[in-house]
């Protein structure tokens, strides 16, 4: 079993869409990520009638990583709905998630994100956001 299969199978366990209340829906998008030290963390999407309270599976997984281990660096990430990423934009983190992952650690620009599970095609966060606005702030922080 390669790491991508392990991540997929771990995330798949979280996939069971459910209406938590008449206002909250969860587990319809799932994610597993491999932290820098090799630990795996999961997350699931949770949506409510108030859009500002929605959390994507990728951000929940990254927050689980930070809260439970203090880590901020991610090596690999897979996210999907009812089946593994199959290209055509499936499995891609939304803009808010991409931004959060970059802000969590500059090193996350090198994280691998699954594009197509069957072919093992991946993309890096840096490829998705080649001219990220925050690079300058990271550089300034290193100077101090």
Question: What would a concise description of this structure say?
Answer:
The chain is of the alpha+beta class and 144 residues long. The protein contains five helices and six strands. The longest helix is centred in the middle third of the chain and has 13 residues.
Which short descriptors sum up this protein?
144 residues; alpha+beta; six-stranded mixed β-sheet; 6 strands; 32% helix; 28% strand
Would you give an account of this structure?
The protein is an alpha+beta fold and 144 residues long. The chain has helices at residues 3-12, 57-69, 95-104, 125-128, 135-143, and strands spanning 18-21, 24-35, 40-48, 74-80, 112-116, 121-124. Strands 1, 2, 3, 4, 5 and 6 form a six-stranded mixed β-sheet that branches. The longest helix has 13 residues, at 57-69. It starts with a helix and ends with a helix.
Which structural class is indicated by helix and strand composition?
A: alpha+beta
Outline: globular
Tally the helices. Answer: 5
Q: Mind summarizing the main beta sheet? A: 6 strands, mixed
Estimate the helix proportion, in percent.
Answer: 25-40%
Output mean pLDDT.
96
Measured distance between first and last alpha carbons: 44 Å
Give the percentage of residues in beta strands: 25-35%
Number of strands: 6
């Amino acid at each position: 079993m390669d790491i991508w299969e392990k991540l997929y199978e771990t995330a798949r366990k979280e996939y069971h869409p459910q209406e938590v209340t008449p206002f909250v829906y969860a587990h319809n998008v799932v994610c597993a990520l491999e932290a820098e030290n090799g630990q795996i963390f999961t997350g699931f999407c949770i949506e409510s009638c108030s859009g500002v309270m929605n959390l994507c599976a990728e951000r929940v997984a990254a927050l689980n990583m930070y809260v439970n281990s203090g880590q901020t660096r991610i090596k690999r990430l897979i996210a999907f709905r009812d089946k593994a990423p199959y290209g055509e934009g499936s499995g891609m983190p939304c803009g808010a998630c991409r931004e959060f992952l970059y802000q969590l650690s500059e090193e996350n620009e090198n994280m691998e994100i699954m594009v197509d599970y069957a072919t093992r095609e991946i993309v890096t966060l840096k490829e998705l956001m080649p001219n990220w606005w925050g690079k300058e702030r990271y550089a300034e922080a290193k100077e101090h």
